[in-house]
Design goal:
By secondary structure, this protein is an alpha+beta fold. It has one domain: 2-Layer Sandwich (GMP Synthetase, Chain A, domain 3). It has two helices and three strands. It has a three-stranded antiparallel β-sheet with strand order 1-2-3, with helices on one face.
């Protein structure tokens, strides 16, 4: 597998996750000092001989404790993405 790391910028799937995360915080009336999402994208051959792509998202939530940050990330992962799909953690 090959991999590359990219930061969240407008129009990317991981920036959509950042938006979902911030939306959950607003819905719960939690004030954040900022968020950052970095994606490491993996692509290459998979076990069945085909090709696959996957992304690992590293999320930084500023201004809240670890438990709150984890709950926000979980909440962000349940927000619909594009055509109603959800994130898989």
């Amino acid at each position: 597998m090959y991999e590359m790391t990219v930061k969240a910028v407008g129009g990317n799937l991981y920036s959509l996750f950042d938006s979902a995360l911030n939306r959950v915080a607003r819905m719960q009336k939690i004030k954040l000092e900022g968020t950052e999402v970095t994606a490491t994208v993996h692509f290459g051959k998979v076990e069945d001989g085909g090709f696959g792509i996957a992304a690992t998202l590293d999320v930084l939530v500023k201004g809240v404790d670890k438990d709150t940050a984890e709950k926000l990330v979980e909440g962000g992962s349940s927000m619909p993405v594009l055509s109603g799909n959800t994130w898989q953690l």
